[in-house]
Write a structure and sequence with these properties.
By secondary structure, the protein is an alpha/beta fold. The chain has 4 domains: 131 residues, Rossmann fold, CATH 3.40.50; 164 residues, 3-Layer(aba) Sandwich (Rossmann fold), CATH 3.40.50.300; 75 residues, Orthogonal Bundle (Helicase, Ruva Protein, domain 3); 53 residues, Arc Repressor Mutant, subunit A, CATH 1.10.10. The strands form 4 sheets. The chain has a 5-stranded parallel beta sheet with strand order 2-1-3-4-5, with helices on both faces. A 5-stranded parallel beta sheet has the order 7-8-11-6-12. The longest helix is centred in the first third of the chain and has 31 residues. It is globular and about 90 Å long.
């Protein structure tokens, strides 16, 4: 375990030397300075895990030192030590950024216990920061997988809406990645350092869902032996993700509407009104507009949720993204298991033909299963499940019915064109003149279309073949 580095700042040489001696005997690396100005100079040069500072010092005093460390954003924990002990000075030190407060004279054991607690707190804070960075990196927009026009359009919307507080409604079939989009929105927003609290409204019994959302007071119902905060309180300052929002009962819809309008509510059984600052992202596998027409979902709540609507297409409608997703999930599994599996081109083609009723989640689980059961690092068509091997080529088709939310015709036609060109190139073995004939195009037109997609860059870099000798 790495040795902790501690900086002591005290204008009195006796206490300063004593602190340095006590801490050094415990194995800590200790530097000691006479005032806050010297402490700040050292902090600019190198990192310290803990700063122990007297509050009353010349030039830069302890309170200003605490504030400067706080403003720097460095992962340094601070403790205040002073002979001028009072409740007021303790409160002021804590407000300035001190983790704890120790009054002179203090015992050796009291000091070492406080130091140990402060360092443990700093370690936890550092781990939390590291985990938050990992989560934010995981949900960067660049890590969202999908090149199809439909997904690119969604990513543009997500990029615009993320740093606002606008309510977002994500619709799509189960397994299409609605929660992934919700997390990407949150972790790319100014609320990223605050909680993202998810709740699946369809997985919790209706009679318990209200308590889960709003919390309850002691004695509110049988079994409520203590008061408990709900998801809205836990998400204060952050984002509440209401998954499967279409499953809410009409009574609960009224209460959710009030929170959206007023940002306030009462716990179940309580009378005190609680105020929160929460962004709402909702998701559903139902078409809420039809639920409104059928009288199963409140129209006013629908319009409150539907500020920024996002409809995630099923995987069968963007089969061009399947190879990208396969490689992404394969990379995850290989890294997790230390394996070096790969799919043959024929296997990838067969996987791309399947319509995936379970969408991206089904594909992800399938890739994991194939890697786990693989006897050979090269996974071919023969290793695929029969239902996938027996799927006719290009069974995954573009939508022929106009979705309720509409579509961008240009993008759909572009996707269809790309897919037909890819099929023609595959059927012709990559010979462009044959592919152009299959498509009823001249070769020049086909080459121009491929160039616009960036598919001729490698070919353009190759040197032209040398003319025949003689």
């Amino acid at each position: 375990m790495a040795t902790a580095h501690i900086l002591v700042a005290d204008d009195e040489s006796g206490p300063r030397g004593l602190l340095r001696q006590l801490l050094a005997r415990e194995g800590y690396e200790v530097a000691a300075v006479e005032d806050g100005e010297q402490a700040l100079e050292l902090l600019r040069e190198r990192h310290f895990d803990l700063v122990i500072t007297d509050l009353v010092m010349p030039r830069v005093d302890g309170l200003e030192l605490l504030r400067e460390v706080q403003r720097s954003g460095d992962a340094t924990v601070c403790m205040a030590v002073t002979a001028h002990g009072s409740i007021e000075s303790a409160i002021e030190a804590m407000r300035a950024g001190a983790f704890d407060y120790l009054t002179k004279p203090f015992t050796r054991n009291a000091l070492l216990l406080q130091v140990e607690r402060a360092l443990e707190y700093g370690k936890l804070q550092s781990e939390n920061r590291h985990l938050r960075r990992e989560v934010r990196d995981k949900y960067k927009f660049a890590n969202l997988i999908g090149d199809s026009p439909a997904m690119q359009r969604i990513y543009r919307i997500v990029g615009k809406v993320a740093d606002s507080d606008a309510t977002v409604l994500i619709e799509g079939e189960s397994g299409t990645g609605k929660e992934l989009l919700a997390r990407a929105i949150h972790y790319n927003s100014r609320r990223a350092d605050r909680p993202l609290v998810p709740i699946n409204c369809g997985a919790i019994p209706k009679d318990l869902l209200e308590s889960e959302l709003f919390g309850h007071v002691k004695g509110a119902f049988t079994g409520a032996t203590t008061s408990r905060a709900g998801r809205f309180e836990l998400a204060d300052g952050g984002t509440l993700f209401l998954d499967e929002v279409g499953e809410m009962s009409p009574d609960l819809q009224v209460k959710i509407l009030r929170v959206l309008q007023e940002q306030e509510f009462e716990r179940v059984g309580g009378t005190k009104t609680l105020h929160v600052d929460v962004r709402i992202i909702a998701a559903t596998n139902k078409e809420l507009e039809r639920e409104v027409e059928a009288g199963r979902f409140r129209e006013d709540l629908y319009y409150r949720l539907n500020v920024v609507p996002i409809t995630v297409p099923p995987l069968r409608e963007r089969s061009g993204d399947i190879p990208l997703l396969i490689h992404h999930f394969l990379e995850i599994q290989n890294e997790r298991r230390g394996s070096r599996c790969r799919f043959t081109e024929e296997a990838i083609q067969a996987l791309s033909n399947y319509p995936y009723p379970g969408n991206v989640r089904e594909l992800e689980n399938l890739v994991e299963r194939l890697v786990v059961l693989a006897d050979d690092p090269v996974i071919g068509v023969e290793e695929l499940p029969p239902k996938i091997r027996n799927t006719p080529p290009h069974a995954a088709t573009l939508p022929m019915n106009l979705p309720p939310e509409g579509l961008v015709l240009k993008e759909v036609l572009e996707e269809l064109e790309h897919r037909l060109i890819d099929q023609a190139l595959e059927m012709s073995g990559g010979v462009k003149s044959k592919a152009a004939k299959l498509l009823g195009l001249n070769r020049t037109t086909l080459v121009e279309k491929l160039r616009k997609r960036g598919l001729l860059e490698e070919e353009a870099k190759r040197p032209a073949p040398a003319p025949p000798a003689g």
